[in-house]
Specification:
alpha+beta, Arc Repressor Mutant, subunit A, 3-stranded antiparallel beta sheet, 3-stranded mixed beta sheet, globular
């Protein structure tokens, strides 16, 4: 890894690493491949967004993270970038109840748990996802299936979740989601 400043006129940085340059190049290719111009602001937002792997966040969450950077973008710029990223398939937009919109960096088909008390969205493990057989009307095709299982903690003294939930879905902690299958009827 190189941590020195090159002796080039017009160089606008200090302590640049090869890893950063490779990451920047990867993000540029990703944005261009999606048909987006890799502006400085989009690259900066993409770096913050994708640096931590697959995750779920809101524009406000990303804004809070971006505020700790050297050149923080405005909340409006983050909303615009996320809208563009979602339109081009770089992130998945998940509209929850009310006006809250989440963005998921894992864009393939998968389902979610939503823990209302904590306002937290996270993936249902693949081994717990049921097979869904939905009849499709003539002349139509399924564009996608979005399932969000809303969870709430069981109050002390309440019946066990399995007894109170006729469909068998069980609440879980985020650290170890359930692996028992559930049924969608």
């Amino acid at each position: 890894m190189r941590d020195t400043v090159p002796d080039k006129p017009g160089f606008r940085g200090s302590m640049v690493s090869d890893r950063y340059a490779a990451r920047d190049s990867e993000l540029r290719r990703r944005l261009k491949g999606a048909g987006l111009r890799p502006t400085r602001q989009r690259l900066h937002i993409a770096e913050i967004l994708f640096a931590k792997g697959d995750r779920h966040l809101t524009a406000e969450t990303l804004y809070a993270e971006a505020r700790n950077t050297r050149y923080p973008p405005s909340l409006a710029t983050i909303y615009n970038a996320l809208r563009d990223f979602a339109a081009q398939g770089l992130v998945r937009e998940i509209a929850l109840y009310g006006s809250r919109t989440w963005y998921d960096t894992k864009t393939g088909p998968h389902f979610h748990y939503y823990l209302e008390a904590c306002d937290d969205l996270f993936d249902i493990p693949e081994e717990s996802i049921p097979d869904i057989n939905v009849p499709v009307p003539a002349g139509m095709r399924i564009a996608g299936v979005d399932v969000i299982v809303r969870l709430e903690p069981v109050a002390p003294g309440e019946r066990d979740a399995e007894q109170s939930n006729p469909r068998g879905a069980r609440p879980s902690s985020r650290a170890q989601p359930p692996v028992e299958p559930f049924e969608i009827r």
